[in-house]
Amino acid sequence: MTAVQGLDWIGADWGTSNLRVWALDAAGRVLVRAESEDGMGRLDRAGFEPALLRLVGGWLPAEGRTTVVACGMVGSRQGWVEAPYRAVPCTPFGRGPLARPETRDPRLSVHVIPGLRQDSPADVMRGEETQIAGYLVRNPGFDGVICLPGTHTKWALVSAGEVVAFQTFMTGEIFALLTRQSVLRHSTGGAGWDGPAFAEAVSEGLSRPERLAAALFALRAEALLHGLTPDRARARLSGLLIGSELAASRPFWLGQKVAVVGAERVAAAYAAALGQQALTVATAEVEPMTLAGLAAARSRIAEAIA
Amino acid sequence: MTAVQGLDWIGADWGTSNLRVWALDAAGRVLVRAESEDGMGRLDRAGFEPALLRLVGGWLPAEGRTTVVACGMVGSRQGWVEAPYRAVPCTPFGRGPLARPETRDPRLSVHVIPGLRQDSPADVMRGEETQIAGYLVRNPGFDGVICLPGTHTKWALVSAGEVVAFQTFMTGEIFALLTRQSVLRHSTGGAGWDGPAFAEAVSEGLSRPERLAAALFALRAEALLHGLTPDRARARLSGLLIGSELAASRPFWLGQKVAVVGAERVAAAYAAALGQQALTVATAEVEPMTLAGLAAARSRIAEAIA
Q1: Are B60 and B66 in contact (CB under 8 A)?
Q2: Residue ranges of domains in chain B, CATH in brackets
Q3: pLDDT of residue A210
Q4: Do B248 and A210 touch (CB under 8 A)?
Q5: Deepest in the core among A130, B227, B240, B275, taking most CB within 10 A?
Q6: Chains A and B: how many Cβ contacts under 8 Å?
């Protein structure tokens, strides 16, 4: 293995299911990226360093310590080192030092970004604060709502550089469970997409969210009795769930400037759903926002050391 | 193996996940019961007869054919023989002959009860029509709503001996997926029950069903930040889901006489939730209703042969 030429630091997004790492130069450009399924969920405390080294061991120069900046569930109580939540309202990042796990390999200097908590209504995030920080770096002075769709979609109200409040929805996880493991898997197996069916279902879910419970099995029955296609059923299910989420998150987005930060397909779905509500929506990909956030954290570490 | 003395016929409730069979005498008394996990979902067409014989092969006398009356997914298109749905409004059972799969074993004479369909809103049931028939045998002249909670809860409006309309809710399956496979499994693992938390959550789910999507992750966050106990979280989740179901099924139960037919714990939960709405609710166990329904189907077969 040969070290990566020009490597200045390493960024890591370490969630429950996946570990993603980037080798970065001093200007924050990506030199190499790698990922594995060594998420927090399958590691005990002693497993984190070997999991990290499996991906980045070959990138490191033999001399000196390379800074690794990590965000996500790696900082939870069951993670590598607990980085206690900071309470909103607050800036996405604090001024204090980051949590530091002990490492056996002398080439590593690991720093873990803490997540955010909201006491009432109770809510937590780990990882999304870094994407929010990155979005604010890229869009200075942004005031409005940032929607971060994913397994657990977060809605964050941002004002004057602070996260004022946020709320989590399990929409992505529920969609995955229903389409992969429930009786609906027989009726929603399509790989395609039906835009009009999605749009109609968003309106239904948003205007009559109380009918969601009744609308789900109807997808199965419509497939059995009336030939509802898998693509259409899948788009309808997604629309019903996102529409219901929009009904419950209305206090966040109503009358606001909204930015959706997410993977391409899911971000497009949320942007389309919000667009139906006559909102102007900006979208941004996750990876550049995560990297901008990690770089901001990295520069604070460098300042603190200097 | 020795045949069961006094065996007159065999009843079978053959669902997606399980096969339950009863050896019955001429008065409909249970002589032996057995069950396996040979549900429709894991069998191909050639697998049904061997699966049945694994349970009842030892019960059968060597001479003559023993009548087996079966309900449930065994009659679906992917089942042993398709028993086409009958369309509501209709009586739970029709007058025509039942579907007959071919059998290789000369000791078997198998009859499969068809399910019910509703064209609009699209819905289907297989198995519950037999429980409804049984409930009507045991409660002649019943007019009102029968709620059959389970993996897929059915609400059926019954009048003058006919199923007028029905609706299916995936509440049981969603509860199982969320408590076993979602992030909530960490917070809802209790075996106990918190009645007041359940009651409060039913009220919340019923009066503000649009908040369901927001209330789910809050269970996880409340556990992390404020020590919500697993028993309380589990009861709250159940209450929120059942409350949301009650909001969507209100047209069925409002102002009606309601009978809940289900397994003890889940029937008690539904009865408690409905009781909060100032309804008088009767409850009945599933097995005796299934057996009464199968016996009614059996007597029609006997009449048709006589």
Answers
A1: yes
A2: 1-119 (3.30.420.300), 127-306 (3.30.420.310)
A3: 84
A4: yes
A5: A130
A6: 133
Q: State the number of CA atoms in the 13 A half-sphere of A154 facing the CB.
A: 25
Cα separation, B188 vs B179, whole angstroms: 6
Q: What are the residue ranges of helices labelled H in A29-107? A: 48-56
Peptide bond into B97 cis (omega under 30): no
ipTM confidence score: 0.91
pLDDT of A1 reads: 54
**Taken in order B60, B95, B46, A221, is the CA torsion positive or negative?**
negative
B170 touches chain A (CB under 8 A): yes
Q: What is the pLDDT of residues A199-230, one digit of tens each?
A: 999 999 999 988 888 899 999 999 999 999 99
- For residue A306, pLDDT over 70 is answered with no
Nearest to A225 among B122, B209, B222 (CB): B122
Identify the pLDDT of residue B88: 98
Residue with tokens 């068809």: B114
Q: Where are the beta strands (DSSP E) in chain B?
A: 9-14, 19-24, 30-36, 66-71, 86-87, 108-112, 116-118, 123-125, 144-148, 153-159, 162-169, 258-261, 281-284
A155 interface with B at CB cutoff 8 Å = no
Q: Are A270 and A239 in contact (CB under 8 A)?
A: no
**Nearest neighbour of A218 by CB, restricted to B121, B218, B245:** B121
Asked whether the beta carbons of A145 and A253 are under 8 A apart, the reply is yes
Q: How far apart are CA A130 and CA A164, in angstroms?
A: 15
For B146-164, b/e burial (b = at least 16 CB within 10 A) is bbbbbbbbbbbbbeeeebe
Contact B123 A217 (CB under 8 A): yes
Q: Which residues of A touch B148 (CB under 8 A)?
A: none
Cis peptide before B92, with omega less than 30 degrees from 0? no
Average pLDDT of the residues in B126-135: 98
